[in-house]
Amino acid sequence: MQIALDHTIVPSRHQIASAKLLGELLGVPWEEAGIGPFSPVYVNDGLTLDFIETAEAYPVYHFCFRVSQEDFDTILGRIKAAGIPYRSSVRGPMDMQINTDYGGNLIYWNEPDGHQWEMLTVSYARQPA
């Protein structure tokens, strides 16, 4: 049996702005209004991040996107062009560096609501074969 994550809800203070920013950075489709009260970002054919606006307290979420090297370079270019600070470690200063410790490239950045995005070319989170 194969299980796939279909969608998840991302709480936000400014759902349309957050969905738009992520969609544009990743170069994927997004909508101001999808089904129900959500602003969806269509990450790929099988995963949607549904942003929802809330005034309630919520934790900072972490999402990691595995991409090809070509897509990494393109997305990083968009991040730089947007003036978004990024870092090479999950915690620490915005050093504007790329981490290459795991056999690929990876970076972290935060969006305005505080959520942490990670982008990498080689996963370090796979179960050993």
What is the count of β-strands?
6
Round the Cα radius of gyration to an integer and report it.
Answer: 15 Å
Please work out how many helical segments DSSP would assign: 2
In total, the number of domains comes to 2
Given as residue ranges, the uncertain stretches (5+ residues, pLDDT < 50) are: none
CATH class of the largest domain: Alpha Beta
Helix- and strand-based class? alpha/beta
According to CATH, the homologous superfamily of the largest domain is: 2,3-Dihydroxybiphenyl 1,2-Dioxygenase, domain 1
Q: Give the topology string: H per helix, E per strand.
A: EHEEEHEE
Strand order of the largest sheet: 1-3-2
**Beta strand %:** 25-35%
Termini gap: 17 Å
Largest sheet: 3 strands, mixed
Apparent shape: globular
Q: Any guess at the CATH architecture of the largest domain?
A: Roll
Roughly what is the average pLDDT, rounded to an integer? 95
CATH topology of the largest domain: 2,3-Dihydroxybiphenyl 1,2-Dioxygenase, domain 1
Helix percent reads 10-25%
Domain VOC: 4-122
Protein name: VOC family protein
Organism: Noviherbaspirillum saxi
InterPro entries: Glyas_Bleomycin-R_OHBP_Dase, VOC_core
